[in-house]
Amino acid sequence: MTADSAAVMPKVGWPFILMLGLMTAISPLSASIHVQSIPAIAAGLDTSYAAAQLTVSLFLFVFAFVQLVVGPLSDRLGRRPVLFGGLAVFGFGGLVAAAAPTIEVMIAGRILQAAGGCVSLVTPRAVVRDRLSGIEAARVLTLVSMLQSTAPILAPVIGGGIDIVLGWRGIFVFLAVYALAIGVVAWLRMPESRPTEEGAVAGWATILSRYRRLLATRRFLAYAAVFSLGTTGYFGFLASGPAVMIEDMGLAPWQFSLALGTISIQFVAAGLLASRLVVRLGIDRVLLAGAVLQIIAAACFFVAALAPTALLVTVTFCLYTFSNGLVFAISLAGATAVDPRIAGSASSILGALQFLVGGLVAIIVASFPMTDFGVFPWVLIVLTLGTLAGVLVARAAPAG
Predict the structure, then answer these.
(1) CA-to-CA distance for 366 and 373, rounded, in angstroms?
(2) Domain 3-396, CATH 2.170.120.12 — does that match?
(3) Which of 12, 24, 103, 336 is most buried, by CB atoms within 10 Å?
């Protein structure tokens, strides 16, 4: 970034952090806002629960792969044009899903939402890295992620309320309106921040060369493993929770929404704690604490799933989600610090891995019988062990 461009950038205060947090919230909001309505969507479109569940898993897969393009595009073309183009696609996809006469059209709308919505995740992270570095970047990313994590808390409440008043189609209209509002605010308040070198934007060859070096860096790969394995157990819960807790345990959709909100709020509390701990302890120590807590939480959930009740499931998964909050932004900050010049590309790799793993977890979990959560407790154990391994490799890897 040139001196002139840095001079016109507004100070990074709470209004700017709030804007970025609400922007990143689009992805978790759109992923989970309709989960309590999946049985109603299946009935309304005359399809099976498994087919309606594809509106979650396929969303995650498309979200993952499109990010691999969005990151380099934002490094080359700029944060603003990529953001506004993506929000337009996302909004159109929401309207398609809202008007869908069949499950196929609904899935097409969700694919458009995923393809456009991923820019709202990549761009804010890159903007933070454009402007900040080191512990301060980790602190701001944690605060942005903490705001982002309010989306899974509010999503079931918002989605359930809209469903009651307007039906499930109104949920997707709401998402389109939300994207429009974020786009207007960003147009007014988010200047271009893409870094330049000697007054010129780096070319594609330079960007892709750094991309290759990034993928060959052991420290980056270790942080990426922590990020993708340590934050995706939640997707498995989204895939199995409605079937087990609504259909088997007999909870009403609003009761499941309350449980999901209680679980999700732990991410916010942990994010706030992590933003303070990282200043005192550093990135790797906080990650180690989060990884150890994840293993403990997964073991507790495994035991609870042997004879599940709504209370036991909620309490044990609250502990797991709290550990997610410790790992999420800290591993993101560590990975994007490896080469800040291509923060957009680094962020896209991380997001792609996260949603790819999340999509696989959702499909694996949904493919088995849901009695007592099926294979999900085993999947959670594997994810947490992989997270700890990634933390240990990152601590041992050279900083350069």
Answers:
(1) 9
(2) no
(3) 336
